[in-house]
What we know:
- There is one protein chain.
- The chain is built from 17 helices and 37 strands.
- By secondary structure, the protein is an alpha+beta fold.
- Among the domains are: 5-175, Sandwich (Immunoglobulin-like), CATH 2.60.40; 367-607, 3-Layer(aba) Sandwich (Rossmann fold), CATH 3.40.50.1460; 637-712, Immunoglobulin-like.
- The radius of gyration is 27 Å and the shape is globular.
- The protein starts with a strand and ends with a strand.
- Residues 1-16 and 620-633 have low confidence and may be disordered.
Amino acid sequence: MRKLFIILLLLLFTTLNGETFIRNVDGFEENPIMNKVLFFDDFSISMVPARPVIPVKNERILLKPFSKNIRVKIISAEYKTYKTDKIQIAYPPASNKINWEKWRNERDKFLKSDICYPENIVEIKGAGYFRKYRYVDISVFPILYNPVKCELKVYSNIKYEISFNTPAKLTEKQMNILNDNNGYPQAKDMFDNFNDLRNSYKTDIENDRALCDLLILTNSNLLNTVDTLVKWKQSIGVNCKVVKVDSVLSNTSGIDNADKIRNFLISTYPTPQWGYKWLLIVGNIDSIPMRKLFPDSTNHATSGLSDSYNPPSDFYYAELTGQFDGDNDGYYGEYGQDNTEFTADIAVGRIPYNDSATIYSILTRIIDFESNTSSYYKNHFLFMGAISNYANEDNNGYARTDGGALGEELKNNTLTGWNYYRMNELAGIHPSTYACEAPLTVTNVVNAWDSDSFGLATWWAHGSKTASYRKVWNSDDGDSIPEENEMEWWILLDKPNASGISYAPSILFSCSCNNGWPDYTNNFVRELLKNASIGVIASNRISWYRLGWTAYNGGGNASIDYHFIEGFASYNYYIGDALNYSLNTYYANYFWWGWQSAQNIYDFNLYGDPSMYYFGKTQGVKEEFSKIAKTINRVIKYRREGNNIIFYISGNIVDKNLCIYNISGRKEFEIKGISNKGNVEYKVVSNRFNTSGVYFAVINDEPIIKPIKLFIIN
């Protein structure tokens, strides 16, 4: 079987205001079908529900700046026709419930249709902007299938053109947009033909560095609190601006507060005076709102079960060039009706609290995490995989989906060389077949997470507003068919158990439904941010997965999880940029399900700092502590209470003192311990540190696992 190669023939001819690109697809010479499934090298797979599983080449093509009237036309194409047996039909997207009747009706209707699918060999999938970069998304289908005739049209040569118009002269506003260079690192990876057109986006006064990298939007009473983070960010070279939300609302027009905030962002993010690429919102949604989005244009519910499909989302503030309410009906983000784009222009994160004490604690933990460069900590991941559904559940015939597959894909691909600890479902009938270090139970999760340093944690499970769950086939009536009344729902992790995890916080991707649910004050994410996590990517409503997922390119929410981790682990993206990379990859390769795919993009929001660099920064100081740290024995834990740091160790060993050392190994001060409920505690007031910098805490004359490293800002 020959590989398919896409070759860009750069700009061939020009008209007054028009441009044309010619593109070739060099295809196949033989029948590509095997075991009722089509296989192609270097191609993605299209899995539109109730339609055949066929190959597709999805490309994001960079156009000239501010292009309009984008068109695609076939110039020539050659094909051969092959007879074949019926081929695989794509399943519907899955959550806890699937509308099998609707899917079967659509499948049966298609199988009786004497037409080729898809209708077009080349389609414009969408078009939009990433900051100043104008692009078009193209899908190329080298195979068409007729289900009645059982025929494949297999194309060996496709030549097509992309045409568009460009402005003869740029306006002053357009010139200012071209001066924005903050999207360059992502753009060079995003577009297949970036190097061919990069000069089209250069100007004589192009900014190499924006005045603001990180914009912090918060309430007036929190300005002093967020200043702690600003000082740290500026010390590692991240320029910050803090803006009061009431100032934005007073000085920006819009139909409501969310509209005013988005209009402010649209007017500032690409300008030389701002230029930011990250937005951190510090405040809960009652003070700084999210936008309620309605991906299914037939469902406008704001309460009840149907509301589970309409997420409030900060994606509204990340994507700043499309129209979320293109039809002006007051319902935002309707797939197929509004002109929503799915490529974010900036990375957005949120700390969903309004009280300064909680926010200060979270911010100082963010500083501790980002200043920590320990390879043991940062190259260590915790995985928890539940079973989403069993094979032939309720006699529907669909494939088994075992969350353990995600852990294997991470371990074997993007996290090769990392240390890991995996927990998969070993309970019930037909447990997980994937290797793990321990069974998946709530006790094992809490004990593992709270006893070792995991920079990264992720689970794939079912979820609610307050917990994530395991679905266990716990009994059988003798027919060997897993049925609804034979299932039990057990806790993977919930709020009370998460509150006990306080040792070393992790970046967490929660690949389950509803954990973010921002309009529920006591949602799971808020508890996780207090203790177990330093940042959480979570779904604000139901998220959708692919039945039978086994590999990273399987699509659905698990692929969003995988590509997020790939973004920072393999490509060194900052956390917010890694999420945007994941959503871009999802849109380019796995956007099969219409409004359900749109919901997955709206759903997964970052609760934490989008400008965080996962592997850590310490003002260029290399971490070396061999003068003090010795062998493995005792673990020091700590928590923050206001301006104090409370260190503690287990056991009533009050004769040991805690010592604080600076980066050079010189002891700054020493503290006696106080017995408290079976632990020894050491209370450190932050003003005891003479200067800002990196410090280490150890127990006097006691061999330890590793010193606790802190970044202190005075």
